[in-house]
Design goal:
alpha/beta; Rossmann fold
Amino acid sequence: MENDVEPGIGHNRGPQRDSGWSWRRHRWVRARADLVGARLPIEVLRGRVKRARELGLAYPAYASVLLGSGRDILGFLYTCDALGLRLRRRLEMPAPVRDALAALVRCDRLVVAPEAEEPDAFRMELQEVSGLAFAAATHAPRPHHSWAEAREALREVLNPIKLPPGALVLVGTTPAEAAWAEATNMARFLPPEACLHPG
């Protein structure tokens, strides 16, 4: 029910607080503190910092993925732009990007192939150029695809290697690619500078 009484001087006209508001706020603050890790044992915190290093992520970025998805990162799905690939006569990968990919520990690498390329052939060429293993490759969802079609297109590459979307981070450069991550329920979308370019 709307309160018709005009607020007094000094009132910022913020939202009305119904009964029980302060208790719900108290419980929310406590639950958030527990989730963020205010009470985590130091060994757990050290393990998480070590895992963030293994994945080439700053600890705050890794912690936000854990908070958002509730699980560890098991793979990264890269777009060609995120990898800085140059599609010339022969595929070229920048050395710093190759080094960042090589440093990953206990984590799969997957790639989104360019539209004109056959995904498995592109994956094989990328492996040859980089000297690194890529678990799978897929085509990007088409611009006219619905969210359901985009989700199915990306899950096609995940199902055979049994990698759950919630354990995957999509590394890309465009808002459309961020939408793919959201449509597929991936753990997070990150720009390449967050994990491929040492800062």
